[in-house]
Please model this.
Amino acid sequence: MTNHDATDAAPPSSTDGEWPLWEVFITPGDGRPHEHAGSLHAVDAEHALENARDVYARRNEGIGIWVVPSSAITASTPEDVGSFFDPANDKVYRHPQFYKSPRGVKVF
Amino acid sequence: MRPDPLHSAPEDATRLAQFEARVARGESIEPKDWMPERYRKQLIRMMSQHAHSEIVGMLPEGNWITRAPSLRRKLGLLAKVQDEAGHGLYIYCGTETLGVDRHELIGQLLAGTAKYSSIFNYPTLTWADIGAIGWLVDGAAIVNQTMLAKASYGPYKRAMIRICKEENFHKRQGYEIMMVLAGGTAAQHAMAQDALNRWWWPSIMMFGPHDAASSNSEELTRWGIKRKSNDELRQRFINLTVAQAQAIALTIPDPELRYNEETENWDFGEIDWDEFWRVVKGDGPCNRERLAARRKAHADGEWVRAAAVAHADKERVRLRESGAA
Model:
C-alpha cells in the first residue's frame, strides 16, 4: 500500500527540526477523483498515510488516500497565469456551441 | 508550495489595488498570489492564535475524559478532543502556506509568547462544565468560524469549512449534556446552572472587544478576512443561545437580558472588560497551568518523535539494502 519510492525523496530531519511536509489527496469513492484535502508533517510515507487517515479521514471521508512529498510537486505560478493558459483562450471551436445544427433537432 | 518572503516583489500601489479588487470580487487569495505584507502578517497572527486555541482547548476537556459519567459520554468526549487536535493541525498547515514553520509557531506557544483564546484559561470544575463548553464555547466558535469559512484566504477558508462540519457534533454533545443535567435531580439542575453561570460571560467575551476598541478589525474587514464585526457576531450568538437556555429551563446570568422588539435582538448587560484584559494578558485562573501542561506534553512526547525518526531511518536503510541485494 505504501509507495516506498517516495520515502527517499523526503529524508526526515532530526527531532529538533520540522518533519517533511506532505500533501494529502483523498477520494470518497464512487469513481470520483482524489482531491487535495490538506497537508501534514510526517517522517516517511507510511507515517504520512497513517497521519492522513487520522487527520483528514476520521468520518469516512475517503476510501483512498495519496500522500505526496510537497517538495515533489511542481506547480504553475500565478504570475504566469496569463501567458500560461493563453493558448486555451481563443479556441471557441473546442466547444460544442461553436457548431450549428438544424433548428429543432436534438443533437444530444 | 510555500512562498518565499525574501523574493516577494515590493508592494506598489498598482498591485495593492489589484489585490483589493480581487478581494472585493470575492476571489480566493492563494498561497503563491501576491499579497500585502500586512495581510500576510495579520493572517499568520490570526491563524496561529486560532491553531494554538484548538491545541490548548484540549486541556480543559481532557481533564474529564477519565471521569466521564458513562461510556457514551466518554466516547463522545474522546472524539471531540481528538477533533480539536485535528483542527489545530489543519490550521497550523494552513498557516505554513504563508511562509512560517509550524515548528516556530509551536515554539512560540511553548515559550508563552503566543496568544490563544482566553476561554481556555478557565477551569473545568464539574462534569457540567463539559456540557457548557460544548454548548457555549463550541457554539460561539461555530458562529465565528461560519464567518471565517468565507474568508478571502483560500487555505484558511478551506480549513474552516472542514472544521465547521465537524464542530456541529461538539455543540450538540455539549447541549445534550446540559439538557440531561437540567432535566435531572435538583442537584443536577443546580450543577448545570452553576456551569452556565461561570461560562456565560467568558463565552460572550470570546468574540473580542467591542468594535470601537478592536484595533485589527478595520484592516481584517477591508481585506475580507472578517466579514462581520465582533459585536455583530456576539449578538448573533446571544440571539441563538437564549432560546436554547429557555428550552432546558436554565437561566442566563444577566439581569439586563431582555428582548428588544424594535431591533429584534436580545439586549444584554455590560461585559467586564477588566476581567477580559486580565485573562488575555496572562492572569486568568489557569494561564500558567495550561502552559505548564503543554510544555510537559511536548517534553513527554519527545521519545515518540525520536522513535518515529529512528524507525524511518532504519526502514530507509533496510529498503536500500534489500534493493541492493
Remarks:
- Chain B touches chain A at residues 1, 30, 32-34, 79, 82-83, 86, 89-90, 93-94, 96, 101-103, 158-159, 162, 166, 302, 305-306, 308-309, 311-313, 315-316, 319 (CB under 8 Å).
